[in-house]
What does this fold into?
Amino acid sequence: DAGVIQSPRHEVTEMGQEVTLRCKPISGHNSLFWYRQTMMRGLELLIYFNNNVPIDDSGMPEDRFSAKMPNASFSTLKIQPSEPRDSAVYFCASTLGSVNYGYTFGSGTRLTVV
Amino acid sequence: DAKTTQPTSMDCAEGRAANLPCNHSTISGNEYVYWYRQIHSQGPQYIIHGLKNNETNEMASLIITEDRKSSTLILPHATLRDTAVYYCIVRAPNTGNQFYFGTGTSLTVIP
It folds into this structure.
C-alpha cells in the first residue's frame, strides 16, 4: 500500500493566486481529513469527510478555503485567493472510520505564499 | 473530548526506556486514549490506543491507570529515530471520528 498520497510536496505561490492541494486516501478508507499545521497554532482540523460527504467544516478558516471529495479516491483543498498567512503545512489523513483504527497521514504539502 | 496534559519536553538516553506521561483527569467512561507521534517534517504517525487495559504492540506499550485519569506511553528501548513530538489524545467513539491534537511532548533521545 502506498499510503496516503499528497501533492504537491511543496508549493510556492504569490499572494492572490489560487492554490489547489490534492490527496489520495488509502484504498478502502471511508473517512478523510484535512489538517493545517503552523508553529503558532499547531495541528488544526480544517474539514473531514465520511463516505465522500463533508461532515464538519467548522475548522475552515474563511470562505477563501474550500474542499471537495468527488469520489472515494480523491480530495482537493483549494485556497482562492491565497494570502501570506495561509503559509503552513497541510496534511491529509484517512481512516476506516472505526474507533479501533488510527489515522494514516500523508507526508503533507508545504505551502508558502509570498 | 476530554482535555489532556503532557509535559512540554523530555530527554531520554539511547537504549533506555522512554516513559511519556499524560494526564486526562476528566476522561469519560467511553473515551479511548490514543497516542501519535510526529517526526520532524513528517505527518503524524499512529502508535497505539486503549480503553481500560494495558496494550502493547511492536512500537510501544500503553499503561492506563485503574481510574483511567492518566496513562503512560513506554518506548522500551529508545533509539535516535524515536526523537519526535508525542501526542496523547482522548476521544469517544461515534463523535465523528475527528482527532484534535494538543501541543504534545517533544522527546529528544540522546546518544
In short: The longest strand of chain A covers residues 42-50. Chain A has a mean pLDDT of 93.
